[in-house]
User: Fold this.
Amino acid sequence: MDILITFIITLTYILLLLPYKLSIAADSIHLSQPLTNGKTLVSKDGTFELGFFRPDGNSIKTYLGIWFKNIPVRKVVWVANRANPVNGSKDIMLTVNMTGNLVLTQDDTVVWFTNIQEQALNNNSVAVLLDSGNLVVGNDRQGYLWQSFDYPSDTLLPGMKLGRSLKLGHDWKITSWKSPQDPSPSEFSWGLLHHDNYPEYYIMKGTNIKLSRFGPFNGQNPSGVPEIRYLTTSTDPLQNRYEFVTNKDESFYRYSYNTTNPVISIIVLNQATVIRYVWVEQDQIWRTYRSFPKDKCDTYGLCGAYGKCIIKRGQMCQCIKGFTPKSPQAWTLTDWSGGCVRDKPLSCNNGTQKDGFIKFGGLKVPDTSHASLNETMGLEECRDKCLNNCSCMAYTNSNINGGGRGCVMWFGDLIDIRQFDDGGQDLYIRMPTSMLGTEHSRRERMITIYITIASICGLLLPCLYFVWRVRRKIVERAQRHMADIDLPLFDLTTIAAATNGFSMNKKIGEGGFGPVYLGKLTNGQEIAVKKLSSLSSQGMIEFITEVKLIAQLQHRNLVRLLGCCIEGQERILIYEYMGNGCLHSFIFGNIKGKLLKWPQRLNIICGICRGLVYLHQDSRLRIIHRDLKASNILLDQDLNPKISDFGTAKTFGGDQTEGNTKRIIGTYGYMAPEYVAKGIYSAKSDVFSFGVLLLEIICGIRNKAYYHTDDNLNLVGQAWTLWKEGRASELIDSNIENSYVVSEVLRFMHVGLLCVQQNPNDRPTMTSVMLMLESEMELEEPKEPGFFYSNISSPDSCLRRSRRDRSLAYDVTFSSFGPR
Assistant:
C-alpha cells in the first residue's frame, strides 16, 4: 500500500511539470526555479557566470553581476542593481515573475527589476545567460523581451552596442564605477552625441561637460584616432572585427571576435579613461592594450576656438594659419582656452569681395555640435553650399574612402582640432579674399614662382651633383670599412621583406638614431632592425662607430649585432631581438613594475655593472658609452640585461682617461655635470649615469620626472637628502616589498649615491662598484651629488654656470619604447 501511494505522488509531480516547455538548466532560471545567494548561473560554454558578489570584502553591500568564470582575477562586466545594492546576503532571490520580468528581491521587497515594456503572452519566460555574457529574458513565442546588453555598466563586451536606438529613443551608454569598490554609476560616461546631425562619441562628466572626443567616423576610423582602421571588413592585431553603423533606426559602434581562438579583450570606462584590456593567460593579468585619451591633446577644447593641438611641439597649442591668439598674454602662460581670432575679417558675399577656402590636412575635424551632414552631396557641391551660407565656417567629406564622398559643414566657431603627423583628414576652412589672392595676382605669383624655380634649379643642379658625389664617396668609404669587419652584410630587399616594408605595425621603438622595427628572416629568426633616420643628427660616422664597436665586443651583457646594411642612402643595423623590450618599460610601468622583484632587479644591476666593467676595463679599447639610460638596457626572455645603442660611444687608447667635445650628446637626467657644463667625458661619466640608473631601479621613479615639491629636488637630490636623515628606505619602490632585505637595498642605494657625486674624482670606478655590490666592504659616506636641484637640470642653467663654454652644441636623446 505504501509503495502504491509513493508511486502516485511521484507520477502526479511529473505530470505537473510537463506543461513547461523550457527546462531548467545551469545557464537559466525559471518562474519555479529562482537564483538564491550562493548559487550561480554559468553560460553553456562556461565563459561567463552570473551571481551575487561583494566588490569589497569588508562591505555588507551585495550586488547581482556577471563576470568571467575561468579567469582568477575577477572582472565584473555587468551589474544589475549598481545604484541600489542589497544590504547583506540573507533572503535575496532572483526570479522570473508571472509577467515575464526578472526581479531581484530581499525579504520579499523588490530591489531591482527589468520593467519589460512588452507584456509576456504566457508565463513560461526564462532568463538565460548566453555565451556572449548577455543575460536575456524571453519565451518561445516572443523571443527576447529584455537583454542586459541594452543596459551596459562600465564594460563593453564583444557584440554589445554603444550608441543610440533612434527608433526606441534608447541610449546604449557606458558609465564608470565610482571606485574599484563601488559599482554605483559615477559622473563619467562614454556614449554617442549629436545623433541628429553628425554623430560622434564623447567621454562626458555629468550631462554637459565634454572631457574627450573621439571624432566622427569618416569611413576608415574615428577622426581623432587615425591609428585605428575601423572597417567592417578589417581586423586589428587582437583579431577583433569592428563596426560603425548609422541608419534611420540606430547608430552604434561594436566589436566582435573574428577567430575561433580569440584573445579575450574587453573595453572598460575607468573614470574618464576608456581602456582596452587583454587577458594574458601566461602572466594571469589583465594588461592594458590601448587607452583613450592617449595624451593631453585629447583633452576637449584644450586650444579653444580655431586653435589646433600638436603634441610634439613645445607649446602644444598653435593658431590655425590666418588666426592669432585672442589673448597673447594668456597664451604665453599656456592658458589656451581663449582660443584664436581671425587676423582679417570675413567679407562673405559683400559686393565683389568673396570669401574662399584653404585646405588644412592631417586634422582631427572639429566638434560636430553645430555641424550638418549630407551623405549624397559631393565635395564641390558641398563647397558651393557652404560658400553661400555666411554662417558656414568649414566643410569636408564625411567619408574619405575612394577619393571621398558625402558632405559635412560646420557652423560657428571650430572647436577641438588636433594636428597629426600621420593620418587625419582634410578640412576646408573659410578665409577672407585677402588671404586667397585674386586670379590676377595668383597668375603673377605662379609666373614668379616658375622663374624662381628655374633659376634655383640652374644653381642647385651643380650643387646637388656635388652633394651626390660626396655622399657616394661616404657610402663607398663606409663599405670599405665594413669589408674589414667580419660581419654579415644584408641586402635591403631582405630587410624590407622581414619588416613588411618597414611597416608601422612592426615598429617597436625609436631613439636618437631612428626607428627600430621587429623583423623575421626567412629562416624564422626574429631580429631587431635599427634604421638610421634621415632626420637624425647621427650620421655615417656614428653608424660606422657603432658597427665597429659592437662587432668587436663579445660579452653576455652587451647586445649582439647580427649584421648591417648599407645600400643607397640606407644605413641599417640588425640586432638580436630582445623579447622583453627595454628596462624603462619595466621599472617605470605600473603593470610590468610588479614583475621585477628585488632578486630580478639585483641581477639586472649587477649585469649592467659587469657590462660597463668590460667596456671600461676588459675590452681591447676603453669604451665610454655616453648615453647609458633605462631605455638603452634591453632584457632577454630571462630578464638578463644587455647594454645597447653604441652610436654615441667614444673609445680611448693607451693611457687616455678623458676627452673633450663641443657636441654634447646624451639624455638629461643621466648626463654627468662636467659633461653637460664643459663637454668633458670619461669613464666617470658612465659611472654617474650608472648611479642614476641604479637609484631609478631601486626607487621605480625617473630622475628627471621626480621633483620634491618643497625643496625642488630631483630623485638624486631627494635620495641624498633622505640618506643624510636616515630615511632613505622611504624611496624604495613599493613593487618590491616583501622581496628584499632592507640592509642590502640600502647598500645598493649607498653605492648609487657614491656614483653620482659632483666631483668625478670622488666617484668610484666601475671595477670598484662591482666589488662594492658583490662584497660587504666598508663604504665611504657620499658627498653632494651633481645636479642636486631640479632647476639646474636643463641645458640653459648648465650653460649659465659655465658661460665660457658658449660654443657647446647639445644633442639630447629622447626615446620611445617597446620590445626589441
Q: What stands out?
A: The two ends are 83 Å apart (CA to CA). Residues 1-25, 230-235, 790-819 have pLDDT under 50 and may be disordered.
